[in-house]
C-alpha cells in the first residue's frame, strides 16, 4: 500500500536522499569520532540535535520518539561530556560537504538553481511545534553551494519529520506503534526498523498485541481495513503538514525543484550511497 503521490510527497522523495546521505557515508561518522564522540549512535543523535544545544533525558527521548528511550539515553546527554554541540555541528557540516562532493555526479548543472529553490522553500516553513526544524533553520547559512544544499534539505526534512510526529501522536500511536504500522505497509522490513530503532523483542511484541487489540493489525502483523485507513490518514496528514513549501513555491516551482533534485537523489540511490530499503522508508524518486 503506497501513499498517493502528492506534490509534498514527491518533493520529499526527491530531496530526502540529499539529506540522508549523512547517515550512510563514512565522512560524518569519522568527523564525530574526530571531535571525541564514541559510538556511531552518539554521533547520530548528537549530530541531529546539536542546533538545540546539550539536550538529553526526556527531552531527547520526546524528540526521537520513534527510537527506544534506552537507545536515546545511551547517547544523550553523555555525548555532551565528550564534545560540545557547537563542535559537533561544525564537524557535521564540514563532513557532509565532503560527502556530497565525493558522491554527487560530476555534472552539477542546475545545482545553484536547486539551492535557491530549496532555500526559498525553507522561507515558507512555519515552525510552531517543530523544534528540530526550527533549530536547524537558525543555523547560519554556509558560504558554499554544497553546504547550503544540505542545510536546506535538512530543514525541509526535519520540518516534515516534526509534522509527522504531530500526526502520529494525534492518531493516538506511540513511536513504536507507528513503526509497526509502517512495516505493515510493506515499505520497510521489520528487522530493519526494530534493529535500527533499538526496540527489544518484548517491546516489539507488546506493541503488536496492542495494535491487534485495537483492530489495526491482524494476528499475522498485516494492516486490517481500519489499520489501512488509519495509515492512509496518517500519511495524508503528514503531507498536509508539509505543505508550507508547496504553498510558497507553487506547482511550477515545486515541479522545477523536483526536476533538479530527483536525478541527484537517484544517483545517490543507484550508486548505493543511500541504500534501498532504508529505515527512513524513502524510495527511489
Q: How many domain units?
A: 1
Question: What pattern of helices and strands is seen along the backbone?
Answer: HHHHHHHHHHHHHH
* Mean of pLDDT: 96
Q: How would you sum up the major sheet?
A: none
| Helical content band | 55-70%
Strand % is under 5%
Unreliably modeled segments: none
Structural class: mainly alpha
Question: Count of helical segments?
Answer: 14
Count all strands and give the number.
0
Report the end-to-end length measured between terminal Cα atoms: 17 Å
The backbone outline, from C-alpha atoms, is: globular
**Which value, in Å, is the CA radius of gyration?**
18 Å
Organism: Kitasatospora acidiphila
Protein name: SalK
InterPro entries: HTH_67 (IPR054058)
Pfam family, one: HTH_67
How is this structure best described in words?
It is a single chain. The protein is mainly α and 285 residues long. The protein has one domain. Helices cover 66% and strands 0% of the residues. It has helices spanning 7-20, 26-34, 40-49, 57-63, 69-75, 85-103, 111-123, 131-137, 145-170, 175-184, 190-197, 201-213, 225-241, 244-270. The longest helix is centred in the C-terminal third of the chain and has 27 residues, at 244-270. It starts with 6 loop residues before the first helix and ends in a 15-residue tail after the last helix. The model has no long low-confidence stretch (mean pLDDT 96).
